[in-house]
Amino acid sequence: MNIERQIIPKLELWRNKQGRKPLILQGARQVGKTFLLKQFGASHFADCAYFNFEKQPGLKQFFAQTKDPNILLEKLILVHGRKIKPEETLIIFDEIQECNDALNALKYFCEEAPEYVITGAGSLLGVALSRGASFPVGKVDLMHLYPLTFNEFLSASDPALYAFISSINEVSPIPDIFFHALQDKLKVYFISGGMPEAVCALLGDQDVEKTQEVLDAIIQTYMLDFSKHIESRNIARVQYLWTSMPSQLARENRKFLYSAVKKGARAREYEDALLWLIQAGLAYRVSLCQKPNLPLSGYHDLTSFKLYFSDVGLLRKMAALHPLVFSEGSRIFTEFKGALTENYILTVLLQQFEGFPGFWKSGNEAEVDFLIQYRNQIIPVEVKSDQHVKSQSLAQYRKQWNPAISIRYSLRNLKFDQGVLNIPLFMADQTQKLLDSLFLFEDPGILDVI
Minimal CA–CA distance to 1: which of 248, 284, 201, 227? Predict the structure, then answer.
């Protein structure tokens, strides 16, 4: 399938930039890192030299014996079976977290052989580093690959609609004929989520049951990782946390409660297990931020948080919501108390804005779903899963903190009114572009100010 991954232009810039360093592409398992790098190698290079430290454990010996790039290249050429040429061959080190010596060797490739184009992919790199694995700080470039966005999904499922939504550069209502078609496409996206294999099963094979099987296989793969990569004392704890997440999100107050994981569970017993899920890229933690000041991260309360899935399709499958729910009006957005929609919006925000979102709460009176930081502004974000958009919480936040702009996602049309930007759920991927179109963040260039 022809899926237009939005990270490709970033890879092109990386390849051509001066002072290029080896690239580490991070991301959870099954988000398409290997396929993307191989595709990039095939389309932008004369050759691609692929090495997998998990499937080819013998490679580790090369890096244990030397860090000299020239000697390493001689040995890698023997494995590859043909020459590895500077600038012409893309070198891919897959599952690089399995070989700490290879990770360290990237420093020497950066310093002594920068003419070679080297990439590494790591599914559990964050976990490996937490265990004391050394990292070539300052000697590598980093990128993160997430599951497919709705825009990427749309590029494969309906190129014409994708072209239309990509052409929108200002805040004005979407014609009904496009609005309803895009809303229907988003319902379908909620079935597969953004895992590439699940998307291909749904769009390419037109097979909903196969999509279910793919998602189930991915979940089982994650659970196998628990037993393979986690200390024995924490395996059960990670499983308890993982399986409790759908029920935690199903509550009206989505604040994570350890007591809901297991009776008598305490935070200190589960801290390592929680950190593992986050470092593996399987869960996102959104912390309470009662005082929305700059920098937002400096005001996060790490003891009070909500825990979300890395992909809306995985959440749907874990919650046992049958795909038929998508055919029942807008039920898929409102089902599960809007948890699917809220989880979807978080994954969108993570890919467009630096830093990690927080959420705001004022006692038991009001709660705003997310706070994001953009251009030195703290922006409150309210998520509505239908057309009913009245929100006392957002109104209270605006009265107390007077933000320059607020964002509301809903099933209403695109509109900016009295400081609130209403974005249809299917246009969430355009959030940053829409904010910029309002000219609220225009400022002189940094160099001009200096």
Answer: 201
Residue range(s) defining the domain that contains residue 225? 150-437
The number of domains in the chain is: 2
The last residue of a domain, from among 110, 144, 178: 144
Residue 449 lies in a domain: no
Which residues, in sequence order, are CB contacts of 304 under 8 Å at separation 6+?
255, 287, 288
CB burial of 398-424 (b: ≥16 within 10 Å; e: otherwise) equals beebebebbbbbbbbbbebeeebbbbb
Over residues 91-130, the pLDDT tens digits come to 999 999 999 999 999 999 999 999 999 999 999 888 887 6
| Cα(102)–Cα(93) distance, integer angstroms | 8
* pLDDT, tens digit, 9 for 90 and up, residues 63-90: 999 999 999 999 999 999 999 999 999 9
Structure confidence at residue 446 as a pLDDT band (50, 70, 90): very low
Specify the length of the chain in residues: 450
Query: Are 355 and 234 in the same domain?
Result: yes
Outline where DSSP puts E strands in 123-244. Answer: 141-144
Amino acid letter at 417? D
Question: Do 121 and 199 sit in the same domain of this protein?
Answer: no
pLDDT in tens, 342-379: 999 999 999 999 889 999 999 888 999 999 999 999 99
| Beta strand ranges found along 232-348 (DSSP E) | 283-288, 301-309
Residue 447 domain flag = no
